[in-house]
Amino acid sequence: MQTVLNSLNQGLHAAFATDERVILLGEDVLDPYGGAFKVTSGLSSAYPGRVFTTPISEAGIVGAAAGMAMRGLRPVVEIMFGDFITLAADALVNHAAKFRWMYNDQVRVPLVLRTPMGGRRGYGPTHSQTLEKMFLGVPGLNVIAPTTLGNPGDLLRQTILQAEDPTLFIENKLQYLLPLQDSALLAEFECREIQQGPDAPAYTLTVRGAPPPVLTIAAYGYMAELARQALLELAYEHEVFAELVVLTRLTPFGLDPVFASARRTGALMTVEEGTLSLGWGAEVLAQTAEALGNHLLRARRLAALDTPVPASGPLENQVLPGVNEIMTTALELIKTHV
Fold this sequence. Notes:
The chain is built from 11 helices and 13 strands. The protein is of the alpha/beta class. It folds into 2 domains: 4-175, Rossmann fold (3-Layer(aba) Sandwich), CATH 3.40.50.970; 189-337, 3-Layer(aba) Sandwich (Rossmann fold).
């Protein structure tokens, strides 16, 4: 069974095999450990001169990688937990994302920063956050979130080899062991891949054989998996039919797939694991309302509570949205829509 973890690992190996300029920097990435979540397993054995284990200094790792990228390499940085990218924010936001602008477009910074985000593993407030929203409004910085749909490893490979600007590549912890959604696993859905932009696909899912949807649900990452489960429950248990739009590129925003779906349904719900206030969903709803005007009749956001993520499992489940919360919010939205 091909999992997201296997796919990402294969994508890294493919990038290394394709271009000798690709290097890796990170904490505990050497074999036999192969990184905290084993995504880099086997790389240091296959390419010993191009994989560098580093001191515990996220700012130093990203700063050094930005310099390497400016000098012609294509560095991949692994930050062990997404919570720690706050330590690298200066190097990423004030340097890597701005060098192209500061030096009159004479330099490129093809740096890919990979990091796992998300909770539901009992890791507590400082190892369970979903912080990518802090970086979505930074000019010059791309943010990508793979999904179980398509080929996340190929998306990573293409990003490493083709992106000319720094990219934050978000990998949710609970996605790693999920199987890729091939045609057999998606037998209950009509799934369509569409281009969100030149460098990232988006996907639309509807329950196979269902009537036209009355609700659009937009999600990314692991929340797209939970939304997919909710799609079935809404259809089979409540006869409410929705279309799920799964985005992989979070910024620069490419929301045409969401606009097209919401124009058909008239109702839009966003789902994310980050906290509710000032989040990804708020921007998606704002841009959709501006684009569609009166064609968007109802809208709702679903996200984590505006609190730190607890270590206790039951409390963590109260803070982070799950399948039941997606269904409840969708039903409330449809009731106000009818």
